[in-house]
Amino acid sequence: MPCAPDREWFEGYAGHSAPPSRQSGFSLVELAVVLAIVSLLIGGGLTALTPLRDAQQKQKAQLALEKIHDALIGHVIRHGRLPCPDAPAAAPENVGVREEGLGLEESPGHCRHRHGLLPWRALGVPPRDPWGQPFRYHLSPAWHAPITCQTPGDLTVRLDHDAGPILADDLPVVVVAAGKEGWPPHQPATQPVTLVMRKGGIGQMVYPSPLLLKARLLEAGHPILCREPRAP
Question: pTM of the prediction?
Answer without folding.
Answer: 0.70
